[in-house]
Prior knowledge:
alpha+beta; 14 helices; about 30% helix; Beta-lactamase
Amino acid sequence: MRAIRIILxxxxxxxxxxxxxxxxARGFAAKEVCSRVFLGGQDSQDVIYNTVFGITxxxxxxxxxxxxLEQHQVVVRDxxxxxxxxxxxTAVYREGLGCTLLVNVTAEELKAQPFQALDPPILDxxxxxxxxxxxxxxxQVSSAVLVGLSQSLDTLFLEKGDxxxxxxxxxxxxxxxxxxxxxxxxxxxxxxxxxxxxxxMSKTVTGLLTGMxxxxxxxxxxxxxxxxxxxxxxTLQNLLHMASGLRWEEAYSExxxxxxxxxxxxxxxxxxxxxxxxxxxxxEFNYSTGxxxxxxxxxxxxxxxxxxxxxxxxxxxxxxxPLGITSGTIEVDESGHxxxxxxxxxxxxxxxxxxxxxxxxxxxxxxxxxxEQWLEFMAMPGVSSSYGGHIxxxxxxxxxxxxxxxxxxxxxxxxxxxxVVPSADLxxxxxxxxxxxxxxxxxxxxxxxxxxxxxxxxxxxxEPDPVSVIEDxxxxxxxxxxxxxxxxxxxxxxxxxx
Length: 498
């Protein structure tokens, strides 16, 4: 066992290419553990073994993680000095703002930023979703439809991976039909109150917020909002259509643009604005989390109160609270800028409210939250035929499945999907933590499950696939770390089992 430890450490010290990737892995680990533990309420060991370890493999062997329950922070440290000294990365949790990675400020300086979280809306505990917290109301749905929807959830939760590196790990599957939550299922490591990150589903939230400011007359599609030399020819519409012309590669690799931005930069929107132009704006589709983070900063700058507090108050009071979203958080970087491209967190039931808002043409509780005209713009193809105004549209790989062409799709990293299907009056949500090797295959698995849900709602016969029927949804089991309890902190040692 000692030999294994030595081999792993020598791998780093020998100048292996992966050594330079450890800072990004530390950032991912610190941020992911912090958000999932302090904001989502998930178990720390489950998060590390079943999410972080697989995504950063094998880099998590070279670091150790400490969770400070009293200070609400996570520190990920190198085991050995990679260059001159051991390095560490810290993520700090703040109520209402979620978790922020420290780059150039201390935890004390971050916590000193002026901010006060708002009280969430109060919902009736006895009323079903979406009016209250009681949840499912399937009284108006036939038993045949419910059986078909149950089959679709079986498909959604089917685990095909045989190792922690290729597991799909579905956490939650929920179905809304005719405006009522009629089916939901959770893995044993989450529940209805677990706030989950949407990753790129967050982009559509930013798209909705953009529409509100356009409805207000504060922004317009043809203006040039990027006030940076060499970038002033980019229109707001170019940003919404992912056609800014800015250099970008959307790959969650250790040295990729998106990884550097999310896990190493203090001001993510400034980093994006500093990138060179590669193409003429409006001519080439290039999907970019950076584009949305830049857009988020533009929105903040146009508010009458462009402070951290002002941005928070805007999205909470104009979008989240009117819909009854009680758990929603858009996290920020240390500069106080909202990460609208990736880090919106809320419970699955609250995510459904955003899908239902689109299905209801922007209306909620008798109020027009966002204009129908804006939603029509979002649903129209831009430079890409399969992408609208910050929302995914029907694409070729859906062709083999019974998926209507009017689908509007929230879609995010690690297998986050929420389909809004107007022709079926359906919202179909899947959230989870698909490992990198499983994500492409799991996209097709989601399309199959969605197809089964559409057929069920239309009361068409669906032949059950015996392979897709499972009795339980297992949590990936890994060896439990044997450690001594530490008051107000948890140290998780990835090598203690060697």
